[in-house]
Predict the 3D structure of the following.
Amino acid sequence: MNIFRNENIRGIDLDYSDDINRRRHNRLNVKWNVEGVWHDKSNFTTRTINVSKSGLLMQTSKESKKGEKAYIKLDTYTFGKHRIIDAVVEVKHSTISDNKFNCGALFIKLSAKNRQFLETVVSGKNPHLATDDTSENDIFI
């Protein structure tokens, strides 16, 4: 079906009803503090918009390039307790929103304990009820 009035341009109506959710894992909307260092050694401080066990969306003051890597310290606060998560992330996308950039990043280095912690938090459960050995939290680059 031609949806354009110009005869030289043809298009069709697109149906997205079967479109699958392309996000890998469920997200939790949280505003946690993030301190980080980009690969070029520049520092940044920001907040998350949402997190999952595989990545996060954070709002930054400048655009990040796809593939850019950063070491971050994520200051989580859940069920009345703080936990610092060390990780290395890789930028997957960066889009502008309200004069800031939404930067979607994938965890590429994250301890198994921290991944489990994030999975538990995103599922709505209290991650502090289980035995918590934070000795494996450090990321060595």
In short: Residues 1-21 have pLDDT under 50 and may be disordered. Helices lie at 112-122.
